[in-house]
Amino acid sequence: MPVAVGLAPEILAKYQPVIGLEVHVQLLTKTKAFCGCKNEYGGDPNTHTCPTCLGLPGALPVLNRQAVEYAVLAARAIGCEIRETSVFSRKNYFYPDSPKGYQISQFDKPIAENGSLLVTDAEGREKPIGITRLHMEEDAGKSLHDGFADSATRTYIDLNRCGTPLVEIVSEPDLRTADEVFEYLTKLKEILLYTGVSDCNMEEGSLRCDANVSVMLKGAAAYGTKAEVKNVNSFRYIRAAVEYEIERQIEVIESGGRVVQESRLWNSGEGRTYSMRSKEQAHDYRYFPEPDLPPLVVSEAWQRDILSAMPELPEARRARLVAQYSLSAQDAATLTTDRELGDKFEQAAKAAKSPRRVAAILLSEITARLRVGGLELGGSPVTLDGVVLAADLAEAGEISSKQLKQLLDTCFAEGQDFAHIYSRDKPQQISDTSAIEALIDAAIAANPAQVAQFKGGKRTVAAFFVGQVMKLSKGQANPAVLNELVVRKLDA
Ligand SMILES: [Zn+2]
Question: Of these four, 21, 167, 357, 427, which has the most CB atoms within 10 Å of its CB?
Fold first, then answer.
């Protein structure tokens, strides 16, 4: 089997990779898609089940209203149009963890179509990636192949996941590089998290991604044969798997072979994909309309009602943070990657004197210390009030940036809030003007050459005297008072 390693750049440059993504997202509804069973990760095997999700004869599905509302919210957030009347279909196939023998899905009339997401291409330009459709369907159960004493000879089935509501989001084959794939997925996840329709937890399988990858000679009229890389459980691995798959296919073609249409699995330990099963050109799922569910009608009024819950989305928020708080584009981008971080920033920014200072403290100081401690934002010992206090003190020049860092270090080391540590360890500061004036006089007397420069018009020399007095005061002079007095004294 060929292992693709280090193809020459001029060979890679002959080919155009073409990538499309299918993303399955579990919705955070309280109950399953078509029955009243709890929709919850984990639980003892086969305890969240009933005749409907077990597929027992005669049990009828009833569509979960919240699942529809979440699907509409997710679809609009990625720019899709909502189809007023969509239809559920049966997708027929046998799999042990799907007891009905079919999956309820949507086929020719999905609930939403024609969306797009922007990514940045290799030349740094923004380009839209088309989203063909978003449709609703149900998840299957799980086959458990490991972890039992007799796992060598048996596979167990857990049907707790069976009937969990999903949306599948299918992109156009508009992606061209593994980096674009990574960015598309990152943005998609960010948007879905903002809407709150899913926790997008990849480890628990709430977000799963399959990538269809093919390569063709640049300028060729038709796409090459695609292979599907399935169920990779992190975006980093998907990027690696796509990169690997592109090189593998080029190598196959370059050595005179033919790419086979197949499903492949990523092995993160070895950094390569493996053939899982070959695929017929087209599956025959014998789709037909689900006879037990009426067509789904999302009226305009219902849609309006659902969309009233649409939050501000990351892209819009980024632009607003720049405009409203004069943040840099970079800071605004970082603050909006996580809705909670953005919320906290805005709360603090409204209470503080300088929003930029708040952003700097949150992004450089707090997040860095959280990362070192392996903590989430909620685990920070420094509260938002603490961040506001720290920002105001730094802004007013009452603490230097070095003192700020020391105080925050102490907060994290002792697990205490900023106000507590500040009132206890408050850096000694001389604000008494006569004491500072005496120090300035000493500095002026000791540096006649610099005084002459200042008098000669070089006013930046004032900073030199500020530095001298700081040294004389062992860093304890109040910088705001000092700055003002130095200039006054030198001008006298
Ligand atoms: Zn059930």
Answer: 167
